[in-house]
Design brief:
globular, alpha+beta, 9 helices
Length: about 375
């Protein structure tokens, strides 16, 4: 299996990049497409459709291609996987739990040993339901992925393929693990601080109160923000993204939930992931400038499973990007250098993956890496 990456900020640039990068001898079957909400998805899909190439696509909040970070553009990985070794599951429904189970059934019907890489809307789909739907049917199916984004507009995010697009559904890349070896790992690196607090009012990913105080006020007081943020919601996101809540879950996992936006009218915070009422949480902070090295070292253990992958996919939290800024490009470069193979990714509204000594979960402030290798 061969992988070639291209990028562009318009369909014209993509067409030119494709023509320059793809030799006559390379016949890609699958295009993984991560693009800004402002890009012309119809034109992108049409271009690949005419070439007989399947599209597996998502809108983003920033893109990652090899060791480069882009915003507002399109990044694409072209793969020549044999078509019998993968299937694209696509369906829209508000019943995510049932939809995810249906995806798992399709994977097991198609392959004896399947893996699933899934992307879904980051605004209308509860990723907990994706994981529960797949793993209540078969908890041995490896599951990786991320939630689509929309450049922090918080209006609609989309997943799409050749004849399908939805802001309320799933797009699953079902892979025959007997033919394409796939593995992954999720890591964050944030440290917890302060005393444990309780979420006293929340709905889905919106937290209204913590210890019976408005969520926004709790953040402002704890971190002693002095500038006037109450009429600048986007500034709040920039400040608070580096201080996610660590949430203890009933399955034993501790996961991060990062605030992305604030509602100035009711002092609530919108998080990149659900936080149920009654949840026990602590604030957390990034450990310092060595975070990038820690991320690289943590993910390097995947070399023990796949020493020489053909392609690398990265789902990295947008809140992580907001918190770390330019350091993210350094991280992308160090992650690519682990294997020196084509790497593609995007900044998400949530990451699906498995951390060390954990089970599959939905994460924030996390880098979830997936590596693929064609079995010889």
């Amino acid at each position: 299996m061969k992988a070639i990456n291209i990028k562009g900020t318009s369909i014209g640039e993509i067409e030119n990049a494709f023509a320059k990068a793809v030799p006559e001898t390379f016949k890609p079957t699958l295009a993984i497409v991560f693009c800004s909400i402002v890009q012309d998805r119809v034109a992108l899909v049409s271009f690949f459709d005419k070439k007989g190439i399947d599209v597996y696509g998502s809108t983003t909040a920033g893109e990652i291609i090899d060791s480069e970070i882009t915003e507002g553009g399109t990044v694409i990985m072209l793969l020549d996987i044999k078509k019998e070794h993968y299937t694209i599951f696509k369906k829209s429904s508000s019943k995510t739990l049932e939809l995810a189970k249906e995806m798992a059934v399709a994977a097991k019907d198609r392959y004896i040993d399947p893996s699933i890489m899934v992307i879904s809307s980051g605004l209308t789909v509860d990723a907990e339901d994706i994981i529960n739907g797949v793993h209540t049917y078969d908890n041995t199916i490896p599951l990786y992925g991320g939630l689509a984004a929309d450049d922090l507009r918080m209006t609609a995010s989309y997943v799409f393929t050749n004849d399908f697009e939805t802001e309320n559904g799933l797009l699953g890349l079902l892979i025959d693990n007997e033919k394409i070896h796939i593995t992954g790992l999720a890591t964050s690196g944030w440290d917890n601080i302060g005393v444990e607090k309780t979420i006293t009012k929340s709905t889905g990913n919106i937290v209204y109160s913590i210890d019976n105080e408005p969520a926004l006020d709790v953040f402002v007081k704890f971190f002693q923000f002095t500038e006037n943020l109450h009429d600048r919601a986007e500034v709040i996101a920039m400040n608070f993204a580096q201080y996610p809540l660590q949430m203890k879950k009933s399955n034993g996992n501790t996961v991060l939930r990062a605030p992305l936006m604030a509602n100035m009218e009711d002092s609530s915070l919108i998080f990149a992931g659900g936080i149920p009422e009654g949840s026990k949480v602590q604030f957390s902070v990034p450990p310092g400038f060595d975070l990038v090295d820690k991320t690289r070292d943590s993910l390097s253990v995947l070399k023990d499973t796949i020493e020489d992958p053909d392609a690398i996919i990265v789902f990295s939290c947008k809140a992580r990007h907001l918190a770390l800024g330019p350091i993210m490009e350094d991280e992308a470069g160090k992650l690519r250098a682990i294997w020196d193979k084509p790497l593609l990714g995007f900044f998400t509204y949530g990451e699906i993956g498995t951390a060390v000594d954990s089970v599959c979960d939905i994460h924030n402030e996390t880098c979830s890496m997936v590596v693929l290798e064609e079995r010889k």
